[in-house]
Predict the 3D structure of the following.
Amino acid sequence: MTESSLTYCYTHPDRETSLRCKRCEKFICTSCAFSTPTGYICKDCMRERQRSFDTAQWYDFVSSFVLSAVISGAASFLVTLIGGIGFIGWLLIFAVSSAAGGIIAEAVRAATRRRRSRPLFLTAGTGVVAGALPMLLIQLLSGNIFGLMFQGIYLVIAAPMVYARLSGIQLSR
């Protein structure tokens, strides 16, 4: 290889490379490259690409938090009532928790008009936890161990379900 044909990474001038960003054609080293299904892109192009996917407005964060907290509070109260049923209550907790997670996710999706952003999904999940906190505190102060367990089961199922449904995570295709 001749001296004139040596190429170096645009962010690391001491690293020799032959890899190029597929969008901007800059030379990039392997630590700067992000793999996509159609090739490699640089950090700058990746940041630009991420911004096009984050479409949420500031008020979407407020509405998603409040909406998920209110619905989660109602579902958490329902979980407390179901907990007193007995063995059937254990089975119903799982069904109610997953249904509540789906309802909350769809309500947030409708309220935000399908705008998306990773922080928005996290805000909705945090709203689920915040909505369940009052019932969790009541169960804790009353010393109701089963009530605490039912609230824990609710939170372990509902909060990740809201995040997964909003972000589009699929466990299988």
In short: The two ends are 47 Å apart (CA to CA). The chain has five helices and two strands.
